[in-house]
Amino acid sequence: MILVTGGAGYVGSHCVLALLGNGYDVVIFDNLELGHIETVETLKSIQASGKVIDFIQGDLKNLSDIQNVFKKHEIEVVVHFAAYSQVAESMKNPQKYFSNNVDGTVNLLKSMIENGVKRIVFSSTAATYGEPIYTPIDENHPQKPINPYGETKLKIEKIMDEYDKSFNLKSVRLRYFNVAGADNRARIGEWHEPETHLIPNILKSTFGCGKTFQMFGTDYDTIDGTCVRDYINVEDLAKAHVLALDYLEKGGETNFFNLGTNNGNSVKEVFSVCEKVTGEKIPVDIQPRREGDPAILVADNQKAKKVLGWVPEKTLEDSILSAYNWAKKLSK
Ligand SMILES: NC(=O)c1ccc[n+]([C@@H]2O[C@H](COP(=O)([O-])OP(=O)(O)OC[C@H]3O[C@@H](n4cnc5c(N)ncnc54)[C@H](O)[C@@H]3O)[C@@H](O)[C@H]2O)c1
User: Is the pTM of this model over 0.85?
Assistant: First the structure.
């Protein structure tokens, strides 16, 4: 049985779908603070026949909540998504982030060790690198986060190193770049409130809803003056988690991988693909730069390709089309 923390959230739920498709039994643990019970219900209704899917509502900040999961199920391996992940909020309230992300993970690791569970795949982030000193960013790039959110994820990576030394706990840390898209059949998708990610925010200004999309900064040193990011499709990302589990199952050592496409797209490029996919002229309002947005963040993904055998296949247009189909469903 695989324990998926945060499986009612955006990336976690797509990963649960991929795990079920690959024959795993899954227990989802989530406090539903940011995730959705409707997502869990959808996952239960589409589970592969014969596969077990259980949902346990609980909070990682309460040690006994997570200990009870290990009492109820024989967990072999953990995939850990549960966290807060809004950069701006983390700058206003760092304590909230250290408490939930770091303390919550320590509770999880403690429960794992108590129960002899020694493998974990962890959602880390490009935010652990901070301001890039070169691009594309490979895994040897210095990790110097510039906000508390990135700092919590880096701290967790370091704690996992210590757990390896002391308890032989093997971790794979997947450092995501910008995750995009939805299930290609629009059964699940990105559902954040508030939404801070670019593509769903552009799409929110469609459907004739009268909202104007705000574009921050058009004077960066990039191809068209807007920020460049590496948009990795959520289904491609989910496949990397399945490969990371295979890697650990085969006795792989603690490791860390960038998950991105090796390609960047500017905000203006993303915006114009959104207009093409939706067939709408989307209202836009140009604003000054926001503080703390690096000009370019692009992953060097060679290591994940070589070691895990991961090949991201979806294009930016695929991600935007699936996100649009999901957004249409969500707006009804
Ligand atoms: N979405 C991205 O672009 C992106 C990029 C880099 C890294 N990440 C990381 O990926 C992971 C998933 O991100 P997401 O976009 O799916 O976020 P999300 O908010 O959609 O999902 C997180 C889930 O964790 C749950 N959760 C949070 N704290 C919890 C706690 N203490 N106990 C139990 N459940 C808890 C929430 O209810 C939610 O369902 C996060 O760790 C995030 O830092 C995401």
Answer: yes
